[in-house]
Amino acid sequence: MNYAEKISIDEQLSILNRCLLNNRHLHSELESLDLNYDDLRYRYNAPITPNHTKFLTPDKFDFKNHGVPIVSFFSGAGGLDIGFQYAGFKQLASIEINSIFCQTIRLNRPNWFVIGPPGYSGDVRNREEIFTILRLMLDLPTPFEGIFVGGPPCQPFSIAANQRFSKEGEKFKRIGFSHSEFGNLLFDFVWYIQQFKPKAFLLENVTGLLNIDNGIQLNKALVILRKTGYTISEPMIINAANYGVPQNRDRLFLFGHRTAHQFVFPEPNLSVVPCYKALEKPVDNLENHTTRKHKANSIIRYMELSYGERDKRGRVDRLNPNLPSKTVISGGTKGGGRSHLHPIYPRTLTVRESARLQTFPDDFIFCGSPARQFTQVGNAVPPLLAFHIACSIYSQIYCGSSAKLSKSVIYGN
């Protein structure tokens, strides 16, 4: 990584202090000097350790289109969907309630059928509407030989979503299945599986789903699915960093199928990809790369942080370039988007840089305001992780073989 200093730390402090003294915005001051935020530096920069692991996104793999059909529920921006697409699956429908997320999918995949605004509600709770579309418009049979995938909105089960509240406060709790809007969407997903009986299904969620309500509700869902004829694999907590994603991100995966095979999730890779590998390639000319216009007093605080340290006032962390990133977060569908601090520049990551950490291809464009773009990126399943899981599902369930794909194929080693 070539980060040659354009100005010294003393010159940088002079600019920052001048902004404070004259009540001038830092963005304007930098422009007047023909500088930008990427010309600023942290005071402390330990050496970056060379690492020979490859940073890959799913579009870098060459897999044949076998055409196993897939229907995606709660599609968001399509992280699961495009991971399965690059693994050779054929997208029949993406079901999504948020109109901006639907715009993103339609922009990037104009040939996909998106069941969502403005033409449809995209609300899986509207079972009659969604069922009719799947049955009559897509002619989905029962049993369906493809796969259903989905990640019901995770806010009710998420610890992170409640960390802004005091632990002693009434709001510091995961209300889970009692949540009036999102809590029972898991059972809507189960209902569609019961109706169409796909050959397989994959459910993704935050790890909190495993123990909310002491596991009673989740176990209830699993009982229903087993009675419907599914073999359910042991719930698996997967860290995306173990599958080539340059980010520590723990998520729960549940997989069920109507076959005699014993499904095994893909083996983790022993070598992890540090986040600098995802950020070293230029992003200046890409979409969704708009740097936040930080004020001078923020940069003064940020620039004193060492690798991994947190700015307590802004509650943002400087990433360590030698390690996978901390979990990319969404900021919520109603609140503002957030991101971590760049490991080299004392500013927050852009949407495009965060999408890199999530392994979205660089040509995948996010619609809406920057805050809503962050929401889409942070809510998504990393496409590369989805790709690895999809490859395992195809090889074990649809090829009729439990043989595993070689690590050289999966990880590009």
What does this protein look like?
The protein is of the alpha/beta class and 413 residues long. The protein has a domain at 58-271 and 383-411: Vaccinia Virus protein VP39 (Rossmann fold), CATH 3.40.50.150. Helix content is 30%, strand content 11%. The strands form 2 sheets. Strands 1, 2, 3, 4, 5, 6, 7 and 8 form an 8-stranded mixed beta sheet that branches. It has a two-stranded antiparallel sheet with strand order 9-10. α1 (9-22) packs antiparallel against α9 (296-302) and α3 (79-86) packs across α12 (383-398). The radius of gyration is 22 Å and the shape is elongated. 44% of the residues are buried. Residues 158-167, 170-174, 179-183 and 401-413 have low confidence and may be disordered.
